[in-house]
C-alpha cells in the first residue's frame, strides 16, 4: 500500500469515521469502550491492508506493558519492503514509554506502515488522542448501543450489508432475545444470515433463540472468570457445537478482563471510576468485587493468552477451537482460590 493510500492530509480537525466505513490510513484511532465495535473496526482496517498488500507484516503491541523503542522497531522498513500493520491495544492503560514513542511517531509516520491505536476510554493518554485528532487522522468512536432503537438499527444494517431481508417484527424479536450484549446480537445475525433461505421472520427467530437457554460467549466468560474451568469448558463446547463463532467468545473474554484491568488500578467511588473510565457504575462494582480474586500476575497472564487467542481465531491459527479452549483454561486456573 503506497503512502498516498495510507497517509491523509493533515488538518486541524479529526477525520471522523464509523466502524463500518473507516478507511486504512497511516494512523487510525479506534476509541470507545464498546469492544465488539472496536474489534469490527480493526478487522475492517486489517482486511483493507491485506487486500492491498497480501504479504503485509502484522505486529501487535500492548500499550500497558510497552517496551521503549518497540514501536520504532516494528515500523522500520524491512529488507524486502513489506507493508507494515501495527495494532496497538490497551491505550487506556498505556505506560509513559508508549506515550512518548507514539507522540514522536506521529510527527513523521512511516509511509509504508499503518498504525491502528485502540483506546478503550477514559482520560489516560489524552495528549496522544488530541494529537491524533489534531493531525486529521481517522478517528472511530465505538460507544455502547444502549437503546433498543440503536440495536434495531444495528440488526437492520447487518442484514442490509449482507443483502438479506429480515421482517421488522423479527428485528425487534431478535433484539429482545439476544440484545443484552452486542457481540451475541451480531453472532445471532450472522447465524440467521447464513441459514435463512428467505426473509427472516419472527417464527425463525423464535425457533433459533426463543425460550432456549443460550450457551453464549458471556456465559463462558463468566464461568472462566469465576474460576470454574469445568463449567466454562462445557459451556464453551456446547456453544461451539450449536454454531457459535469463536471470535465473539474471545471478545467476551477480552471484555471481562479489560474491565478488571481498568478497575484494578483505579481509585475513588464506583461512580467516580465509572465516569473516569467511561463504564457503567454497575460494571465497575462487579469488577471491584471480582478483582479481589486475582493476582496482578494472573490478570496479566490471562490478558496475554486472550490476546493470543484473538489473533489465532482471526486467522493466525488453523485450530481456533483449541485457541479458545486454551485461553478459557488459563483464565479459569489463574483465579486465586479463596
TrEMBL record:
GO terms of biological process kind: DNA-templated DNA replication
Superkingdom as given in the UniProt entry: Bacteria
Transmembrane segments: none
Catalytic activity from the UniProt record: DNA(n) + a 2'-deoxyribonucleoside 5'-triphosphate = DNA(n+1) + diphosphate
GO cellular component: DNA polymerase III complex
Molecular functions (GO terms): DNA binding; DNA-directed DNA polymerase activity
Keywords noted in UniProt: DNA replication, DNA-directed DNA polymerase, Nucleotidyltransferase, Transferase
InterPro entries in UniProt: DNA_pol3_clamp-load_cplx_C, DNA_pol3_delta-like_C, DNA_polIII_delta, P-loop_NTPase
Pfam family, one: DNA_pol3_delta_C
Coiled-coil regions listed: none
Keyword Thylakoid annotated: no
Domain DNA polymerase III delta subunit-like C-terminal residues, every copy: 216-328
EC number: 2.7.7.7
Family membership: Belongs to the DNA polymerase HolA subunit family.
PANTHER family the record matches: DNA POLYMERASE III SUBUNIT DELTA
The protein, known as: DNA-directed DNA polymerase
Organism for this UniProt entry: Arthrobacter oryzae
Lineage: Bacteria, Bacillati, Actinomycetota, Actinomycetes, Micrococcales
